[in-house]
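Structure ticket #2291
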Amino acid sequence: MRKYFSKAFQFVQSLTRKDEGTSSVELAFLLPVMITLYFGASEISNILIADRKLNKTGSAVADLVSQSITIDDDLMQDIFDASGFIMNPFQATPLSVVVASVVADQNNNTSVAWSDALNGSAYRPGEQFVLPPGLTTPGSSVIVAEAQYTYTSPIGQFLTGGMTFSSTYYLRPRRTSAVARVR
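Resolution: structure written out below.
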């Protein structure tokens, strides 16, 4: 029996001394980790790019509207079309943009004067709108642009679904006290 254990012990020792397949075993362990890190880093990069493009979209919509004196349907459609182009190379379908002109009365109570939306629902005119403190003075107005984007990665759609980002921008009209909406 001792001879049997001695031979088994020698066999195990001989396995630990052989290193012909060491590189293959190390590669088999590390390759899945390296591939996961590579795809994870590329997904994080795409998520950050989508978030930055969404911020640029919200800012651009608010900026374009605040530069106008009046907005008609064609100009609003052009602004919404531009927002889709800003999101390239990502799809514009999950992009939602809501833009509104919020006016303050003589008591500095704010309400929506007009609102339009792309892939979302606009605010109703006359609806109360709560702004952060200090943005308005009695009789003034603010352009509010809310942008929302649901990023769905090619890989993550099976695991987590989409990630939703949103941003809100507040700008004062530049060339008039309140941007008018012509329908």
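Closing remark: The first helix runs from residue 2 to 17.
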